[in-house]
Prior knowledge:
With 387 residues, this protein is mainly alpha-helical. The chain has 16 helices and no strands. The chain has helices spanning 5-22, 24-35, 39-67, 69-89, 93-107, 110-122, 126-152, 160-176, 199-228, 234-258, 264-283, 288-303, 305-316, 321-350, 352-355, 358-379. Helix 6 packs across helix 14 (321-350), helix 7 (126-152) packs antiparallel against helix 10 and helix 11 runs antiparallel to helix 16.
Amino acid sequence: MIRNRVTWLSYLMLAFYGYFLNVFGPITPYLKSELQLSYTVSSLHFSAFALGMIFAGLLGHAVVQRTGRWVALWISAFGISIGSLILIAGHKAVITITASFLMGLVGSLVLTVVPSVLADQHGEFRTLALSEANVAASILSAVAPILVGWFALTVFGWRMAIVVAVAAVVVTRFAFGTLALPPVKASAASGNTSRSLPLLYWIYWAAIFAAVSVEFCMIFWSADYLETSLGMAKADAARAVSLFLGGMILGRLAGSRFGSRVNVHLYVTASVLVAAVGFLVYWMAPKPLFGMLGLFITGLGVASLYPMILSLAIGSAGSSTVQASAFSSLASGAAILLLPLILGRLADSLGIHAAYLVVPLLLAIAFVIIQATVRLARIDPHRVPTS
């Protein structure tokens, strides 16, 4: 695979998005304290971002078709940057929550542009390109809490972690100048909507929803689980979440190296099984050490599910890569908005230990979907993408 300036720009834009998305967790305690917010109101910041993602998934393909990929990419980058500056400048919850919604709505255009650009640019190597892009996103996602914590101890304060990211976006714009991104294919620009996407795409869409749901259920609730079920101190439990993120980085690095060399369905199947084993260790752990080990293994398994299934979904969409990318962000937004809330509601009723059984159920759904598409591939190999 040849990585040109378009490839590197795409990687950077997805990485910046990952940074802004994952900075919410570490900055929420500071917003909560400064604005004197309740837990419920504090949680609305991320819910607003996820709601913006959903609208971006519904409208993103139309925006890209109207403005072109290059303009849409920088609308996304500067939109999420401006929204983040409003967020850190806001002195009322209504302002900061609205800014979060703006970040999700405009910023999530990148999820429409980048996967479709990489798919059109790299063709049969799209799985490798998407895996590498998500490695970059995972690395910057892990950097976000580190920078927030570091700047919080300096004279600059935690807000500087946002300012630095915005400055990096501006520098990137000047560094890359004007690039010729792959044009939107004719059939994708003709005005067709979701009706142009085949049934197979929507089957993969359900698997994307399940995979992202697992990822964010673990990110949102693992610290609470380690504290309440395994007796870890609050600070230690919060830091332990980095094991899941570290596992995801290593898993996506492995996926970028080996995922393109084997059948993608087989790789996804193996990843689901690794995640299931890791979760079993995590859920049944008698001591914190085993819980943290299970958390890390779960991250390893979950890591490749989103980029690999996304590659299969885009491959099933033919020339409609823009629509396929846009509606995949709808799946991600819906998963991020709904599943952590559902798990939390179940935890209130049943306890966090029992509520966490949602995760193996979601993994089972992803497993069944992938096995069904493997069977379909045996019946009609031209209908199901394998890379």
